[in-house]
Write a structure and sequence with these properties.
429 residues; six-stranded antiparallel beta sheet; 34% helix
């Protein structure tokens, strides 16, 4: 059968549209920014409204959130994201939620005329985190609704017998968990257990009501004050992806930021950032939950280090390296050796504790004499040694308490870096 030229063109166009449509459908089905929930569209939109503050904001870094594009990610700064949610009811029940995110950042080009804000492609982490937060929000809302409904049913078993159909007893709604929840529950219990004016004067309050209210108060008190949170002690505390002092920070936490505690050891705390995102924080940089010390029991690391090392030479000279903050500047150089080279191999912990002792002592001398030295360098002169350098301003912030040990570590220079790497368990130090 012959096909006329016009009909042939129509058939080819139709085939092309079907290919494009099938591609779009396949992409949609595999899109990681979509998730199906059993709740109704109205319930999901209410939960999304409660999450509105998390739908946009600045990014601590682009790495881990955006895909590298035409330019390297380190050429961008001031990253920002804005997410939108689309809720589509499913014919079979539940709803499909689709999260779309725009990531923008300032591109800095050697030629200023080419600099400007550019749109980057999200790698899916933001969308996944928001969907995880939505799931948690929906679960929390369902739990609160169940508790409120159960309490309303149990609160008035006797009153329901005498209630008139035209004037049903109102269901009391509990406020959201906060610092005033205990007083609110007590007021509710007092009013609910008081005799109803419409009843006979001889009516007595149900004793089980007070017990139920007391039990609920204890539950809500525990909900309002979780016992598995750690709080950051100082602004600018690094949160890193691995338990290593040489790891690049994911972002800097602020004072009083709280994170869920997942695990900890003598030196590191493993926390949940949001959704499936995890991170590590130096243990003495956070306030641990009640019953757990902020710092691990002292192992006498400094005393051990003092028995292993001794200073063999101190001098003032130009910085012996190519680190930009100290390049060509005068610094105090301290050379350290093992007391007994054959005794045993020293670890990172001993070197770091002894270096901290020398950095603190040297900064005090620099500040007292106002020598104007740009920094301090500690050189461990041994086969497994290395060099650590810190600028005077960083040491000043550290001694003033605005920098934690971990934050100071990230501002130091190490040569070679792996000499002071503390990744892995603290037992390997």
């Amino acid at each position: 059968m012959k096909i006329r030229p016009g009909a042939r063109h129509y058939v080819l166009s139709l085939c092309g549209c079907m290919v494009i449509l099938s591609t779009v459908v396949a992409w949609t089905q595999s899109n990681p920014a979509e998730r199906t929930f059993p709740q109704s569209k109205a319930a999901i939109e209410k939960a999304l409204k409660a999450m509105q503050a998390n739908m946009a904001g600045r990014l601590p870094a682009l790495e881990g959130f955006a895909k590298p594009g035409e330019h390297p990610l380190d050429r961008y700064q001031r990253g920002y994201y804005q997410a939108t949610a689309e809720v589509v009811p499913n014919p079979s029940g539940g709803s499909l939620v689709r999260i779309k995110t725009k990531v923008t950042a300032w591109y800095s080009d050697p030629s200023s005329s080419r600099s400007g804000y550019q749109l980057l492609t999200s790698n899916g982490r933001l969308e996944s985190d928001l969907l995880d937060q939505l799931s948690e929000q929906l679960a929390t809302s369902a739990s609160e609704k169940t508790v409120a409904s159960s309490t309303a049913v149990k609160a008035s078993p006797e009153a329901s017998k005498d209630a008139q159909p035209s004037a049903p007893e109102p269901v009391r709604k509990f406020p959201e968990a906060n610092n005033t929840i205990s007083s609110s529950v007590k007021e509710w219990a007092a009013s609910a257990s008081a005799p109803d004016k419409s009843t006979e004067p001889s009516a007595k309050p149900d004793s089980s009501l007070q017990a139920e209210a007391n039990n609920l108060e204890e539950i809500l008190k525990n909900t309002a004050h979780p016992k598995n949170l750690v709080a950051v002690k100082k602004s600018g505390t690094p949160v890193v992806p691995t338990p290593s002092l040489t790891a690049k920070p994911q972002f800097l936490a602020s004072l009083h930021d709280e994170f869920e505690l997942l695990d900890f050891n003598a030196d590191w705390v493993h926390v949940r950032i949001s959704g499936l995102s995890r991170g590590w924080i130096w243990r003495n940089s956070v306030e641990m939950p009640e019953g757990i010390a902020d710092n691990a029991p002292s192992s006498g690391a400094l005393n051990t280090a003092a028995d292993l090392f001794h200073v063999v030479r101190e001098e003032t000279a130009p910085f012996p390296g190519d680190w930009e903050p100290l390049r060509g500047k005068s610094v105090k150089i301290i050379s350290v050796q093992k007391i007994d080279e054959a005794e045993r191999k020293t670890g990172t912990k001993e070197r770091w504790e002894y270096a901290k002792f020398l950095l603190e002592k040297s900064y005090s001398e620099i500040a007292e004499k106002k020598s104007g030295l740009a920094g301090v360098v500690v050189i461990f002169d041994s086969a497994d040694g290395g060099m650590i350098a810190a600028t005077t301003p960083a040491l000043q912030q550290w001694r003033a308490g605005t920098l934690t040990d971990s934050a100071l570590w990230h501002k130091c220079f190490f040569d070679p870096p792996e000499t002071f790497d503390s990744s892995g368990s603290s037992g390997s130090w």
